[in-house]
Amino acid sequence: xxxxxxxxxxxxxxxxxxxxxxxxxxxxxxxxxxxxxxxxxxxxxxxxxxxxxxxxxxxxxxxxxxxxxxxxxxxxxxxxxxxxxxxxxxxxxxxxxxxxxxxxxxxxxxxxxxxxxxxxxxxxxxxxxxxxxxxxxxxxxxxxxxxxxxxxxxxxxxxxxxxxxxxxxxxxxxxxxxxxxxxxxxxxxxxxxxxxxxxxxxxxxxxxxxxxxxxxxxxxxxxxxxxxxxxxxxxxxxxxxxxxxxxxxxxxxxxxxxxxxxxxxxxxxxxxxxxxxxxxxxxxxxxxxxxxxxxxxxxxxxxxxxxxxxxxxxxx
Length: 316
Ligand code: FAQ
Prior knowledge:
The chain is mostly helical and about 325 residues long. The chain has helices spanning about 5-20, 30-50, 50-55, 65-90, 95-105, 120-140, 150-175, 180-200, 210-215, 225-240, 265-275, 280-295, 295-315; strands at about 250-255, 260. A hairpin with a 4-residue loop joins strand 1 (about 250-255) and strand 2 (about 260). Phenylacetyl coenzyme A binds near residues 47, 138 and 200. GO terms for molecular function: phenylacetyl-CoA 1,2-epoxidase activity.
């Protein structure tokens, strides 16, 4: 592209961003915008597919046929979210196989939350309620992301996450209205998942490297701390309905501000987990790599079939 053509493309990009319009795959965009989106969408896609593991762990141990069917559907939904997101990343010019290689070699990240173990059935409730709940708070604004394919993928993802959140809450509601042992199991799950869920929103604003630029580009609409606050405000009253105690001695309601005040999560834990030192990082990545290798024959067969069909069509 000529220098003039490039400048005109950047002007039109900025005009679209200023008018709160959508950037589409063939539109001109700055390299940094493309790179940021590839990083975020790929990390998001990886999170969806690695996120199948903690819950997949309980499919064979679900307490009833009904719970098993619901959990299988939920885990399949997460695979679907991964597919929409990899497809959205491909519109930016990357290849899905290359992006997966980056995940498998540990060069691209996935959400810290999926490096924690699911020790009891109540953890499946806690993941739906808290992890999908946090995902919704983070992702509803992404439906207005300036990049069209990502924004459109998020609409359906959010509808499904919202169903997931309710099924998680319902699991915990049932446990909380069951035996004292079941209620204790629910409390224990909340105790273990609360802080990691707050960390899903990323580092505090003061340490977030990408937020300012991503917000200027209309990729992110709110900062990490704003979304974390929104999540706490939404979730604490739900814990009250369950009769569970949020494990934060610093939690209080600020009437004047209309917000809950809460303690700062231990961000050294977040950085440590992101670096690969969480309780399940190695296991989750190894499982993912093995699943990919075991599935190689399916990809080869699909590619051979597609090639045959293309030859047939060309001959016809
Ligand atoms: N984990 O400058 P910022 C789900 C990294 S989906 C790991 O603030 P940014 C559904 C960040 O990449 C959950 N890394 O970054 C489900 C950056 O590193 P880099 C996933 C994290 O991008 C439910 C560095 O720290 N959701 O749960 C984390 O502006 C149940 C500096 O941070 C998404 O991906 C973290 N928690 O904001 C599935 C949503 N936080 O790349 C199965 C889309 C930060 O420079 C079961 N993503 N980092 O080396 C986003 O909204 C953003 O990317 C944030 C981070 C908010 C995650």
